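hey so u asked for the seq, here:
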Amino acid sequence: MPAKSNLRILIAPSGFKENISAEAAAIAMAAGVRRFAKQAKLTLLPIPDGGEGFARTLVRLSSGQMKKARVSGPVGQKLVASFGVLGGRHRNTAALEISAAAGLRLVPPRLRDPRKTTSRGVGELVAAALAKKPLRLLIGCGDSGVNDGGAGLASALGIRLLDRNGVPIESGGAALARLHSIDMSGRDARIARTKIRVALNWSNRLLGPRGVSRVYGPQKGATPAHVAELEDAMAHFARVVRRELGIAIDKAPGAGASGGLGAGLQAFLGAELRPRFEILGEFLDLDRAIRNCDVVLTAEGTLDGQSASGKVPAELSRRAARYGKPVIAIAGALGRDVRKTLDAGIAAYFCIQQKPAQWEQSFEDAPRLLTDATEQVVRLLSAGRN
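ran it, structure tokens below
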């Protein structure tokens, strides 16, 4: 490792869900490095995981503009969401993220029940983006407070999901159990004229032990009984989609992203699902940044066993291994099976918590704690060199 004055550090964090954006995390980490190694050469490359900050990051990198639209929130509230109109060589492209209209942060804790929350606002945000007449639409599919397979999105775009009596089903994931037929005749005509690509975690599955309802349902407020109900409803949804539209969404990689919105975007909008790093790679020269650094510092809200499957720290480790560069992860919290991230290639991980604290207090202090933790990591790197 070079002397601290010559140290080249790539700071490439994801965001802390419901707390710190990827860009804010990068700034906080850079401040920590500068406390100790003022002359270190820093490259800040915040990497949104498809959730909050996805559209804003692409707008920044392409010199585009953010636009606003009024949409429905996941519990029916009205809110203002943003999407991006990109610039430069991407000027015919619009970008949005699921979390802007259906993120978990938009669901008050007392109302968190994925049997009832809806993705309708995502469909309304898609319609607002389509009004700009893009040739291409990029959708970041990461973080949501819903589990409805994109049913709400579909209804907002003119697609009718009907029960046995020809009546539209209610909102929410539980209502998928009553789906009988799908009427695509009223679908927004602009969809067919737009190439839609979705950036998501390729490892997210729709059904099964690692399916969306079982893995993420509890985070969204589902009890064990609710999880079983949602799994059955999603399995029924997949069977109806296969019968009505001829699409096997239960087998598609990434279909489980954002409460099954990956599946819904593929089935209802004909979207192409792609690993998030493939789409981000059009804007971020990540491999070059890794080649030109000595160490990679990344961060994530919770580092656990799931982080080893397609999330930002694991993908960074996989790429950095090609160039023999170590990746060190800093987390807001360490969760179950976190040691799996070491098997995925992360050199070491650290937690920002300094003492027992209430969750609310940790959220408020997270930027400062992240700065403090980053400083200590760089000090340790320097001590190891010496």
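The two ends are 9 Å apart (CA to CA). The first strand starts at residue 8 and ends at 11.
lmk if thats what u needed
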